[in-house]
Amino acid sequence: MPDFRLRVFQSVARHLSFTKAAQELYISQPAITKHIRELEQSYGQRLFERRGNRVSLTPAGTLLLAHADAVAQLHQELTEQLHNLHGEAAGRLRLGASTTLTQYVLPGILPGFQKRYPQVELTLLNGNSEQIAEAILSGQLDLGFVEGRAKNRDLHYEPLLADELVAVRRTTPAGPPPEPMPLLEALTHPLVLRERGSGTLEVLEFALREQKIKLTDLRVAFYFDNTEAIKSYLEAAPEALGFVSRRALTRELAAGLLEIVPVQHLQLPRNFEALWVQGQPLSRPAERFLRYAQRQYNL
């Protein structure tokens, strides 16, 4: 079993932040500092340079990171091979998912997977689609799940689940319009959108481009990095219109807080997809998780 202090060091080195490492590992920031200090005393070397709030690796830290990554990889391979002797899936599985998937799709299937494969140590990183793709390519994740239109040719994609974006607003006394709202009328409302790099914004941008409309032409009230913030904003802003996943609206629609507004000439279907490095086989835990997820969604 690799020294936990090395996991702490790797986390700080990846994020270049003691705070983010503490959040990732669910331990206090003083504990992070303590583990790093112990490593530095053990090796007799400074591993990080600290200048104000900025953290960077020293040459010794860069060398240790390369070896720590190698140790972690060897331990993962050993764990998998030992359990493969009995046909079991085991070891570390680092998942990453874009925000909509993290909030509304994957949590519902994680308990079932953990019950079936208790020897797999799961972690889940949340980010937008662009961030998840970058984390896969940099080796920080074993398997990712994203939505969006753009594809990276260095990554392999497999479908997981169909989805649809819809226009939504605070519930009105009259209810949703009896006929779809003209697109140009919809775009006169203050719009609440996801941030750049998100698959949600990318799908909307592609659809508007087909209508010869640029994102810069829109009257955007706010960009948010998560759907929950968009929904809360809409509940407080009667004139605003947002675009979110239909899967994210179950509770708000049932409670009568928000309503879907059909928009003419604006169809926003999309797919949630799994991704990993092109040409690189999945580990046994990642393969098992992908197939388990696809079965849950009848793929």
Automatic annotation (TrEMBL):
Domain of life: Bacteria
Transmembrane segments: none
All copies of domain HTH lysR-type, residue ranges: 1-58
Record keywords: DNA-binding, Transcription, Transcription regulation
Protein family per UniProt: Belongs to the LysR transcriptional regulatory family.
PANTHER family: HTH-TYPE TRANSCRIPTIONAL REGULATOR (PTHR30126), HTH-TYPE TRANSCRIPTIONAL REGULATOR CYSL (PTHR30126:SF39)
Protein name: LysR substrate-binding domain-containing protein
